[in-house]
UniProtKB/TrEMBL annotation, chain A:
It comes from Eudromia elegans (Elegant crested-tinamou). Heteropentamer. Part of the GPI-anchor transamidase complex, consisting of PIGK, PIGT, PIGS, PIGU and GAA1. Interacts with GPAA1. Interacts with PIGT; this interaction, via a disulfide link, stabilizes the expression of GAA1 and PIGK and links them to PIGS. Pathway: Glycolipid biosynthesis; glycosylphosphatidylinositol-anchor biosynthesis. Keywords: GPI-anchor biosynthesis, Membrane, Signal, Transmembrane, Transmembrane helix. Signal peptide: none annotated. The chain crosses the membrane at residues 332-351. The keyword Membrane applies. The keyword Transmembrane helix applies. InterPro entries: GPI_transamidase, Peptidase_C13. The active site is at H135, C177. This is GPI-anchor transamidase. GO terms for biological process: attachment of GPI anchor to protein; GPI anchor biosynthetic process; proteolysis. Pfam families: Peptidase_C13 (PF01650). Belongs to the peptidase C13 family.
TrEMBL record, chain B:
Keywords: Endoplasmic reticulum, GPI-anchor biosynthesis, Membrane, Signal, Transmembrane, Transmembrane helix. It comes from Eudromia elegans (Elegant crested-tinamou). This is PIGU protein. Its main location: endoplasmic reticulum. The lineage of its organism: Eukaryota, Metazoa, Chordata, Craniata, Vertebrata. The chain crosses the membrane at residues 68-99, 166-187, 193-209, 230-251, 257-278, 285-302, 314-342, 354-379, 385-407.
Length: 363, 435
C-alpha cells in the first residue's frame, strides 16, 4: 500500500487545463476548426470540464454561409461525426483570436474585466495541454491571416508562465506546416512538445468531403484522434505511444517531439495526465501511513540546475534584498583635469586677445 | 544708443520671463519646430540624468549635444531659464556691437569709393547716409530679441540659442578684426553643430579685406594669411575636441554628435527637408541621398565666395541662411538668427521684388505649422504630406527671400557703378535681368 500511495503521487499535478487554438479563418480552413473541435471533444470526454478549457476558434464554420450543412462541423468524411453541437463553449471567437489575446491568456495578464471563462486560471499544480493548429512556417504561426506569433515569443510566454508558477507540466501539440520549428526555442522546464511535421515539411490534410467541398481534417490530428478514441480515463497508455502516432507512411510528414525539457521519462507519463482530468481518488478501507519523507518519487536526479529549484514552491529573492537594489545615487563630477584644461584655455585666450598688460590690473 | 538697447533687452527679458512662468512653456518645448533631436532640452536633462546614474549620456541615442554643454549645464541646471535668457541677451548685444562696427566700415568704404569716383553720377539716392544707418544696430537687436521664433526657442530652452550666441560672437570677433578670437568662436560653433564650418570662407574674406590683402590666387600674402587663419581654426577645433574627450574619457560623443548630424538617423518631423524624404527612402539609396542633401549645404560656399568676394558680410548672411535652410535638423531658432540680420540690408528694400508675398508665405506657414501638426497627429484627418507641404512652402519662402535679397544686392551694386537709369546702346531704357 505504501507503493500504491507513492504511485498516487507519481504525477505531481492536481488539475488539468486545456488551451485549444485554431488560428485560421476563411471557409477553406474548415479543417483547422474541425481539428480543434475534435480535440476539444476528446478532452471533454476524458474529463476536463468546460471551465478548464479555453477554446479559441478564429472563424465560425458551423454558421458559415458556405456550409451546406449549417450548424455542423464534420470531422470525418461522409459526415459521420459532427463535432459541433450546443454543448460546445467557444471562449475566444472570431476576431478575438489574436496573438495578443493568446499570449494574455497564457501569461495571465488579462484586464480585470475579462470573464472567468476566458481566463487560464492555472496554478503550479496544473497540467496544461496546449493545442494549436493553423498555417505556419519556419519559426512562426499565422493568426487570422494578418499577424504572426514567433517561436521566440511563445518560448518567452512559457517562461513567463513558469516564473509565475502557472503550470506544473505542459504538453504542447502543434499541427501546422513546419511545426517543429515552433518548439525549437522552448527553454522552460517541464514542457513536452509534439509537432506534426519537421522544419521544411508541410503537414497535409486528410480527406476532402465532396459534399461539403473542403478538407475536413489534417492527417496528424486525425490519427491522434483515432489514437485518443482508444483512451478512457483509466488508461495507462503513456506518451511513448503518442509519439508513435502517425508515422511517415500515414502522415507523409515526419512528426516530431521534444522531451529534453521534461523531467519525467515519457514512459511514465500517462496520456490522461494531459488529455484527461483524472481525479486521483482511490477508495480503500485500510489506513495507510504516509512516510513524511516522500522523496522516493523524486528518484530521478535533477538533470539541470533548474530542477532543484522548480520543484519547490515560490523560490524568490528575499524581499529585503529587493528593497536595497536601488542604484546608489552617485553624483557625477567632471574630472579635475578637464576643468583645469578648460579654464586654462579660456584664460589663455582672454589674455592673448586682450594683452598681458591687463594682468596687473587683476592681481 | 545704450539706453534704447537696455530698454529693448528689458522688454525681451520680461516677455521671456512671463512666458517661462506661464503654462505655454511646456507646450512650446514640445513643439517639433522648436526642439529638434539635436537641441531639445528634454534630451539634455535626460543625458545629465543618465550621467548621474553612471551611464554614458551618449548611450541609447538620446543625447546629441556636445560634452561642453554637459559641463555647462551640470552646474547650471537649476538656473537653466536664466542661462537661456542671458544667452539671448548676449547674442543681441553681440550682434548690436558687430553691426555698429560694420556700419562704420561700410560707411568708410562708401566714402572711399565716392572719392575714387567709382560710382556713377546719378546714384545719389542709393548712397547710404549715417542718419539712416544710425538705428540699424538697435533694429538688429530688436529683431533678434523680439522675434517670436527666438522667444519660442528661448522658452523651449533649445540649445540652438547657445549656438546662436556663439555664432554672434564669431561675427563680432570677425568684424572687430581679431582672427584669433574669430577662429576660436568658429571652432566652438562648428564643434557644436558642424555646419558653421562654411562660415570660414566669409570670415576669411572679411579678415583679408580688413588687412588689405587682395584676394588673388597667386598672391603669397593671401595664402599665408589663409593658412594662418585656417591653422588657428583647425588647432582650436582639435583642442576643443580633445578637451571634450577628457570630460567623459571616451570618444562616444563623436558618432553621437557628428555622426548623428551627418547621417540623419532620426526622422522626427521638423521644419527641414530631410525627414520626409528619408522616411520613405529605400535603405539601398539612403546613403547616396544623405550625401546629396548634405552636400547641398556646403555646395554654395565656393560660388558665393567667387561672386561676393567684395562683400563678405553679405556672403556671411547668405551662408547663415543657407545653413539654417538646408541643415539636417533646423529649428526656428536658426531662422531667427539670419532674420535678425535683415535690417542691415534694409536699404535694399526698393529692389526687392517679392517681399510682400514672401513675408505672407513665411507668416502663414509659421501659423499653419501647429495647425497641420494637430490635424495630422491628434485629429488624424491629415497625414504627413500636409505637414511636409507646409515645411516645403516655408523653406521655399526662405530660399526665395534669400535669393531676392541676393539679387537686390547685386542689382544695387550694378546700379552704383553703372548708374541708376540704364540705357541700351540706342538710348532706350534697359532692364536689368538676372541670368
Amino acid at each position: 500500500f505504501q507503493d500504491q500511495a507513492e504511485q498516487f503521487f507519481r504525477s505531481s499535478h492536481t488539475n488539468n487545463w486545456a488551451v485549444l487554438v485554431c488560428t485560421s479563418r476563411f471557409w477553406f480552413n474548415y479543417r483547422h476548426v474541425a481539428n480543434t473541435l475534435s480535440v476539444y471533444r476528446s478532452v471533454k470526454r476524458l474529463g476536463i470540464p468546460d471551465s478548464h478549457i479555453v477554446l479559441m476558434l478564429a472563424d465560425d464554420m458551423a454558421c458559415n454561409p458556405r456550409n451546406p450543412k449549417p450548424a455542423t462541423v464534420f470531422s470525418h468524411k461522409n459526415m459521420e461525426l459532427n463535432v459541433y453541437g450546443d454543448d460546445v463553449e467557444v471562449d475566444y471567437r472570431s476576431y478575438e483570436v489574436t496573438v495578443e489575446n493568446f499570449l494574455r491568456v497564457l501569461t495571465g495578464r488579462i484586464p480585470p474585466s475579462t470573464p472567468r471563462s476566458k481566463r487560464l486560471l492555472s496554478d503550479d499544480r496544473s497540467n496544461i495541454l496546449i493545442y494549436m493548429t493553423g498555417h505556419g512556417g519556419n519559426g512562426f504561426l499565422k493568426f487570422q491571416d494578418s499577424e504572426e506569433i514567433t517561436n521566440v515569443e511563445l518560448a518567452d510566454a512559457f517562461e513567463q508562465m513558469w516564473q509565475k508558477r502557472r503550470y506544473n507540466e505542459l504538453l504542447f501539440i502543434i499541427d501546422t506546416c513546419q511545426g517543429a520549428s515552433m518548439y525549437e526555442r522552448f527553454y522552460s522546464p517541464n514542457i513536452m512538445a509534439l509537432a506534426s511535421s519537421q522544419v521544411g515539411e508541410d503537414s497535409l490534410s486528410h480527406q476532402p468531403d465532396l459534399g461539403i467541398g473542403v478538407h475536413l481534417m489534417d492527417r496528424y490530428t486525425f490519427y491522434v484522434l483515432e489514437f485518443l478514441e482508444e483512451i478512457h480515463p483509466a488508461s495507462q497508455t503513456n506518451m511513448n505511444d503518442l509519439f508513435q502516432v502517425c508515422p511517415k507512411s500515414l502522415c507523409v510528414s515526419t512528426p516530431g517531439h521534444r522531451t529534453d525539457l521534461f523531467q519525467r521519462d515519457p514512459q511514465n507519463v500517462l496520456i490522461t495526465d494531459f488529455f484527461g482530468s483524472v481525479r486521483k481518488v482511490e477508495i480503500t478501507a485500510e489506513t495507510i501511513s504516509l512516510d513524511p519523507n516522500l522523496t522516493t518519487f523524486e528518484s530521478k536526479p535533477p538533470k539541470e540546475e533548474l530542477a532543484a529549484e522548480p520543484l519547490k514552491y515560490a523560490e524568490q529573492l528575499p524581499v529585503a534584498q529587493i528593497i536595497h537594489q536601488k542604484p546608489k545615487q552617485k553624483d557625477w563630477h567632471p574630472p579635475g583635469g578637464f576643468i583645469l584644461g578648460l579654464w586654462a584655455l579660456i584664460i589663455m585666450v582672454f589674455f592673448k586677445s586682450y594683452g598681458i598688460k591687463h594682468m596687473k590690473h587683476i592681481f | 544708443m545704450a539706453a534704447p538697447l537696455v530698454l529693448v533687452v528689458l522688454a525681451a527679458v520680461t516677455v521671456r520671463a512671463a512666458l517661462f512662468r506661464s503654462s505655454l512653456a511646456a507646450f512650446i518645448s514640445e513643439r517639433v519646430e522648436v526642439a529638434s533631436p539635436l537641441s531639445a532640452w528634454k534630451r539634455v536633462v535626460e543625458g545629465l540624468a543618465l550621467l548621474d546614474l553612471g551611464v554614458s549620456p551618449y548611450s541609447g541615442a538620446v543625447f546629441h549635444e556636445t560634452p561642453l554643454i554637459i559641463y555647462l549645464f551640470h552646474f547650471l541646471i537649476e538656473y537653466a531659464e536664466l542661462v537661456f535668457m542671458i544667452t539671448d541677451v548676449l547674442t543681441a548685444v553681440a550682434l548690436y556691437l558687430a553691426i555698429q562696427d560694420f556700419n562704420k566700415v561700410v560707411f568708410k568704404k562708401q566714402k572711399l569709393l565716392i572719392e575714387l569716383d567709382k560710382y556713377a553720377s546719378d546714384v545719389a539716392e542709393l548712397i547710404r547716409t549715417p542718419m539712416e544707418m544710425h538705428y540699424i544696430p538697435l533694429k538688429v537687436a530688436l529683431f533678434y530679441l523680439l522675434n517670436p521664433y527666438t522667444v519660442m526657442s528661448c522658452v523651449a530652452k533649445s540649445t540652438c540659442s547657445i549656438n546662436n550666441t556663439v555664432i554672434a560672437f564669431f561675427i563680432l570677433a570677425t568684424i572687430k578684426g581679431s582672427a584669433f578670437l574669430s577662429a576660436i568662436f568658429l571652432a566652438l560653433a562648428t564643434y557644436q553643430s558642424l555646419y558653421p564650418v562654411t562660415l570660414f570662407a566669409p570670415a576669411l574674406l572679411y579678415l583679408l579685406q580688413r588687412q588689405f590683402i587682395p584676394v588673388k590666387l597667386k598672391s603669397k600674402s593671401f595664402w599665408l594669411y589663409t593658412l594662418q587663419y585656417g591653422a588657428l581654426y583647425l588647432c582650436s577645433l582639435v583642442v576643443i575636441i580633445c578637451l571634450s574627450f577628457f570630460l567623459l574619457n571616451s570618444w562616444d560623443f563623436i558618432p553621437s554628435v557628428y555622426g548623428f548630424i551627418l547621417s540623419v538617423p532620426d526622422l522626427t518631423p521638423n521644419i527641414g527637408l530631410f525627414w520626409y524624404f528619408f522616411a520613405e527612402m529605400f535603405e539601398h539609396f539612403s546613403l547616396f541621398f544623405v550625401c546629396v542633401f548634405q552636400i547641398n549645404v556646403f555646395f554654395y560656399t565656393i560660388p558665393l565666395a567667387v561672386k561676393l568676394k567684395e562683400h563678405p558680410m553679405f556672403f556671411m548672411f547668405v551662408q547663415l541662411a543657407i545653413i539654417s535652410i538646408f541643415k539636417s535638423y533646423p529649428t526656428v531658432g536658426d531662422v531667427a538668427l539670419y532674420m535678425a540680420l535683415l535690417p542691415v540690408w534694409s536699404h535694399l528694400y526698393r529692389f526687392l521684388q517679392n517681399i510682400f508675398m514672401l513675408s505672407c508665405v513665411l507668416v502663414v506657414c509659421s501659423l499653419l505649422f501647429p495647425v497641420l501638426w494637430h490635424l495630422w497627429i491628434y485629429a488624424g484627418s491629415a497625414n504627413s504630406n500636409f505637414y511636409y507641404a507646409i515645411t516645403l512652402t516655408f523653406n521655399i519662402g526662405q530660399i526665395l527671400l534669400i535669393s531676392d535679397y541676393f539679387y537686390a544686392f547685386l542689382r544695387r551694386e550694378y546700379y552704383l557703378t553703372h548708374g541708376l537709369y540704364l540705357q541700351k546702346q540706342d538710348g532706350t531704357e534697359a532692364m536689368l535681368v538676372l541670368k
